[in-house]
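Entry for the shared binder. Reason: the reviewer on the internal report wants the predicted structure included alongside the sequence.
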Amino acid sequence: MEYEGKIYRPWMEANSLLIQTTIGCSHNKCTFCDMFRDKKFRARKLEDIYEDIEEARRTYKHVEEFFLIDGNVMVMKTEFIVSIIKKIKELFPSTRKISLYSQYNDFRRKTVEQLKLIKEAGLTMAYVGLESGDAKVLEDVKKGMTPEQAIEGAAKAKEAGIRVLVSIIFGLGGKERSKEHIVETTKLLNILQPEELAPMALAVQPGTELEAQLDRGEFTLPSKRQVLEEEKYMLENLNFSTFYWGDHGNNEVSLKGQFPNNKIGFLNTVNNAIEQEAGRDETIVTYSW
């Protein structure tokens, strides 16, 4: 099995066998992302993907989890995705999880009936990068999506019964737009109500447009305290049940568990971190949101 270029998968998929289905990302314009800068987006040939799955069958006696890479596999034609999932299920009948990357716009551009076909074929989870619910931040980072489009895509995924894990990025609004970013993100999440939520703190990647903006003084990183305050606000104001994957390596604190079951414990951890950071933080910010 040969992979092309740099390979990425969510940290929750550490035990999954990766099947490269697409090369790169169909959007590939986000200012903060360098995951697929070296690739031109395309779908792999179906026979090549089948060959990888067949090789996996010869190599491994038992695989329970698969993850389809690269970026937004959901953008591909419905029959293409269904064929790959069915091939996996045929050769690995004991498989209990098949996941992939998607965008809300990928859901939006398919019919509910098409999404149901993918779900019925055996799709278990779709990982979706929301990043922010603030329209201006989404525009600034060139996400290519509006909050309204996210709502439309999420509604279709829910109607089709597709479980969604959404990622958001603390600090993506920078120092100046921290409040608007987290308030609007929380508000949008309460509408979308993803089954799972993965918040990550911003880390500026070398070679990205965001790094250039930072160097030119057009973007200012938020302080650690601001990032913690964003997480505190979100935890205080989310109003739906979800699994919270707040244990990404970039985060200021590590939180993981069912929400709101663990809300009090999560907030205690964040508040303790804020108290420790308060004495070191020279940023003048009013947090009466």
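Summary line for the report: The chain has one domain: 11-276.
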